[in-house]
Amino acid sequence: MVLAAMAPCMRLYSYLGSQLREAVPEATSPNNPYSEWVHTYGSPDFEALAKQLEDILDELAAGEPYEPLCAAYRRAMDLEAQFFGAQPGLEEARPLGVGLFVTDFDDTLTTKDTTPIIIEAAFSAAERAAPEERRGDLRREWEQRLREVLQLISEEQKALRERLQSKGPTAGFDPERLSEVLAELSDFDRRMNEAAFSSGIIKGVSEGDVTEAARNIELRDGSREFLRRAQRLRVPTHVVSVSWAQDVIRAALSPLEPGVEANRLSLGGDGLCDGAISGEMQTAEDKRGALRRLLGGERRGPTVYVGDSATDLGALLDADVGIVVGDNGMLRPAAEAASASVRPLVALAAAARGGASPRAAGTVYRANSWWDIAQLLLGDDDPASEGRREAPRVPRALTIAGSDSGGGAGIQADLKSFMARGTFGMSAVTALTAQNTQGVQAVHPVDVEFIEKQIQCVLQDIGADAVKTGMLPNKEVVEAVANQLRINKVQNVVVDPVLISTSGHALGDDTAARAMLAELFPLATIVTPNLPEASALLGLDKTIDSVAGMKDAALKLYGHGPKYVLVKGGHLKSEGESIDILYDGTTFHEIRASFVKTENLHGTGCTLAASIAAELAKGLDAVVAVRNAKAYLVEALRKSCSLSIGVGPQRPFNHGFEICDWSSSFRKRDVDYRLYVVTDPACNNARGRSMTEAVQAAVDGGATVVQLREKDIDGGHFCRLARDVIEIARPKGVPVLINDRLDVAVAAGADGAHVGQSDISAADARRILGPSAILGVSVRTVEEAVRAQAEGADYVGAGAVYPTATKGDAECLGDGLDTLAEICAAVDIPVVGIGGISASNAAAVVGRGAAGVAVVSSVFGAPDVAKAVAELRQAMTSAGSAS
After folding, report:
1. Residue 605 domain-assigned?
2. Which positions are catalytic?
């Protein structure tokens, strides 16, 4: 954990030191107060030390839970931000602003050149059109032509680099020299294109082919977000590219619609490329000319151009601000040949902070990421929210599924699960169902375009750390969802292949399953079929009925492309155990849990998949996510065993059991504290009766609350005893509280707990028990009672009111009944008097304001428990204290 906090700090200091060393040379001057800091942290030795620490962390953290490490990282970064923010003279930097934004495409917005994608699409088209026996020869011929073109480009590029490097330096930036360099670069670009086109490597491809291929293009991290924000801020945004097919650019950036200046494929009458392109955007000079045309319009701020290669050099230097992302190796030699300089982006930030103009002739700036560019030019993503950096990270999960009008499954179950597992949930509805606990009555699919629109609206604004898919009724919907996942580069995808409802109603047509295998499984982090679904997806004649069959199914489904396959064994008849099989391509993980016998099973599949998505959204490893999700589901089912919702067999369960326990027959505000009995094993032993017999008698006699107190038994025995007592009391509407042992209270499903002043604090107890449990606290003074109320207590037990032998260490209240009255007046929650109370004095206790009396030996030490309780009730009734 210490290393997890240290490693990012080391890397941060190394980065800042090296950036300042390069961007602000005067910072290394001996006279500069920060020179020693910059020299130390900006040195290669310190960078190597930071890398060494990261390697040690990687080795030691292998297999450790991810979320605690992330928490340490985030806390370390928060503290560093506070440290730097507290330095004198430092205030939040204002964004530079943008009047016109222009960017290159290949290797600038994308992680790599997309030209090979166009070439591969052309070959695939030719291969499809060729006879099968000819395809092998065709592949070899095509690869030979491609090797020849690439060899030529490599040789010519090497010669061009040498010519550029041979140019002597000039005294400062030389615009005429720049024009000469651009002419040489443009001549190279034209000749290489001619060589590629004459080889025929793009002949026969269609615009549709390249558009489809563009779906697999990976954009640089943060680039799409930058374009989205720029358009939202109404910044004129354009892409200027020498790409051979502008359809590739439009498809890769969809649904964003910047202006695009690029080439098109030259098409013949058959709609296929004739081997060339149409358009005048092939060279460095062409890109410079395109920028100059765009500069003719009105602008509200500086013009910014972002590129990566020597082909961008003219446009980079003509813009007010030229920014380089990445480097293809030719840019720096070209810039040096024109006596232009390449400086780190922080130099621009420093100049702008000092009030200098952003335009510096002959200078371009190098950025490490699009996030850096966005911060400098546009500022924080949400200007309306002050202090965004201090806000906690919110895990976000999107469900793409059908609606269940009965609330037990579908998006309703998913959203409940997301919230229960600590994530912000969003939804895109694929179908509307009319259903209840008796089954699905009707299904109404949602229009495909509207499904796509829902997904786009969510992902392009809020974003999602994980997406879970459920009911996808047909092939068209599956393909549309898969396309949106590709376009938006979703990292964590949980596919729950919902095909048939629990009641047997078909939720997808025959095409949906095949489309899932082909389109969604390759995108999935994890797929979660149950046994009937796995059998249907694999086309098996009968449903899988063994663990060995589950493993075989997982292996086969893994072949369709997901990273993990979870075959759920809920339909498997196994003795007292639920077994799921998780396969990661190497290992079969058996996820086992106790079998919960309940009829409240509607929505279990949706819940498990949604919970897995929530755990992935929080950054957990897939295996850990599955285990956590199953543990949550099992506990939800256990807490819902006795629920009766609806009259049919498809009964839902309580997703929010941690905050709302419906299995209890009372609400906290309805608790009757009048006759609160506290069990005593010693009294029961002396009278020769069991604990359950004593509690049964107390409840029969009219006890309104039972506190189970056991000091000398182990936790397992205590839990079993508590469950037995709950089974007696709860049907009569009598809550059962556990003394001291919060773990037993939670494990046994008790209605709450009672703690003393020397036990865990009321605030901590409340965090453990949750908001719906009853929490009582023992107090002796007004101050203790007020504090208990402030920390979340629902009532306090004040005493001892009278001397008592039951608890030898119990001190009496200072002034007895008078102190009790003061405590009652000081708090708004019920006060129960305890200590030495019997039928002879109970009325006096209630008469001073107590909501009830807590009794021990006067009930459980009596020969007849039920009679003793009844006499206490009668005594209070006679004194006018009964309701």
Report:
1. yes
2. 709, 778, 807
